[in-house]
Amino acid sequence: MKLRITIAALALAALFFTIGHLTAQSEKKMSDQTMQNLSTAMHGEAFAYAKYQLFAAHARKGGNVKLANMLESTAKTERFEHFAEEAKLAGVVGSDADNLKDAIQGESYEATTMYREFSEQAEKDGDHQAALRFEEIRKDEMKHRDAFAAQLQALENK
User: Fold this and answer.
1) N- to C-terminal Cα separation, the chain
2) 106 near 92, Cβ under 8 Å?
3) What is the pLDDT of residues 79-110, one digit of tens each?
């Protein structure tokens, strides 16, 4: 249950993060369909990376080092090659200030809307542990947002 919640939360966060970057920072160099396909591809690569890392940790914990190493190697390819190449095509990374603004926007959405709604829905459905986890993550997202905002302020004051 915990693993599914973690994977689902990571996938949703990656999707919203990617869509935000694509929307905010693309310069219409590519068609809308290509940009949408890049977003879908990056979502899949980010999800595979997170999932394979979890699988590797499980395999390592069970003593299957060979499987763990293979999963970690594959995860790195998904993240550091596939996702990175697609992100470059999509123009995901901008200036430090633009990156922080985008990160603040994503963390704010997760903290004020996404995880709040997930927690409330889980509680309504009687999934108390999931509701608690979503609320805990929501609080972490607020800290991330605030840290990014402080860094943006410091950057703008230079």
Assistant:
1) 46
2) no
3) 999 999 999 999 999 999 999 999 999 999 99
